[in-house]
Amino acid sequence: MIPAGLSFFFRHAGQLLTLSGPPVPRRGPDLGELGILRDGAVLTRGPIIVGVGRTRDLDAEARRMKARAIDCRGRVVMPGFVDSHTHLVFAGSRVDDFEERLRGRTYEEIAASGGGITLSARLLGEASTRELCARACHFLEQLAAHGTTTVEVKTGYGLSAANEMKTLRAIERIRKQSPLEIVPTLLAAHAVPAQYRKRPRAYIDLLARRLMPEVAKNRLAEFIDCFCERVAFSVADCRRALEAGLRHGLIPRLHAEQLSRTGGARLAIDLDAASADHLDHVNRSDIRALARSGVVATLVPGANFHLGLGTYPPARGLIEAGAAVALATDFNPGTSPTLNMQFVLALACSALRMTPAEAISAATINAAYSLRRADRLGSLEPGKQADLAVMEVDDYRKIPYYFAWNHCVMTVKRGWIIYAQDRLGVSGIVS
Ligand code: NIG
Ligand code: FE
């Protein structure tokens, strides 16, 4: 049945990147297939796409439906970005950490001396829920203005059951306010709180006893994540947390092999996690195991860039082995203060040696798989949700080529125009 509602006819896209294909994550050579239509068009009714094709082939149907025409004038039209890894709810910044790192201290050293996540946790504890929501809403507006239509949001700066609940309540509130789709993840095991330094397992058990039942009862999170790292939680502790999460209906995802190789990727595979993220230190056998698994390998090169590491995760090895690679911003105050997926595409090309087409598939359809939403999101196909971005370029490769720009001139979520630059204002182009 075709849903009722406002209809739009996005027509004359110079390149319409449909990302259409079989309903499986894109692997190997398929990652580079964008399903491009020249002079393409998308016809929507309410929140749903009802037609995708050449403009002239959809014209009559658009007229019959009295759809409002939006002339895309030769621009690139693509699915909205799915940013599948962010830590968007935080207070203050970590600009002092940033400068200290530039003077030579490492992320781990700063974390060990009370900076890092511990500092962000103190600032979050001091902030009101209202302040947290106001900041987060500002970030969400920026995400929309850069072409992102779905965003995963992790907790993680609570470091106590009470402040994790405060973060979850803030996420619940912004979910109601924002037109973007927000996917909440419980990352309560992000750093070991000072009082649990010698017994991290007791903190995990506290989370399992006090926090997870409440989260499950009120449906405050969909996924559970842990920071599996020498400066955070061991593989055994992460397993304990993720298994407790599973018992409460939370789907695992994991920060794995970011700063060192700890075995997190294997744990993610073992638990059939939705995603293993970062993966800087995976070895060849981890890559083969990921390729054989259903775990999406989510790469976040913004973190490497901002930390000035000079090294990047082995994207080519993962793609060539057949892993399902996704890209995300990892937007957070400590390691990746960017929410621009277009810049992540540029890093994916220049630093990870991905092609522009591979990067776009990784940032849309594969990211949608990692959030278990690929039945609705990540490609422009009839029956899917009308989530798209119009980019002010005539060739999709120019999105990463002209790097660190914002090419997005219009963003559409569930069939609503949620962002439009003045020069593509609806009034000027409605026919
Ligand atoms: O993805 N690795 C752990 N979490 C974040 C960093 C969070 C922080 O430093 O505030 C990351 O890089
Ligand atoms: Fe992260």
The percent of residues in helical segments reads 25-40%
CATH class of the largest domain: Alpha Beta
Query: What's the pLDDT, averaged over the residues?
Result: 96
The CATH superfamily title of the largest domain? Metal-dependent hydrolases
Low-confidence stretches: 425-431
Q: How many structural domains in the coordinates?
A: 2
**C-alpha-based Rg, rounded:** 21 Å
Helix/strand class? alpha/beta
Number of strands: 16
Please give the count of helices: 17
Proper CATH architecture of the largest domain: Alpha-Beta Barrel
Query: What gross morphology would you assign?
Result: globular
Tell me what portion of residues adopts beta-strand conformation.
Answer: 15-25%
Hetero ligands: N-(iminomethyl)-L-glutamic acid, fe (iii) ion
- The name of the CATH topology of the largest domain is TIM Barrel
Largest beta-sheet details = 8 strands, mixed
The termini sit apart by 27 Å
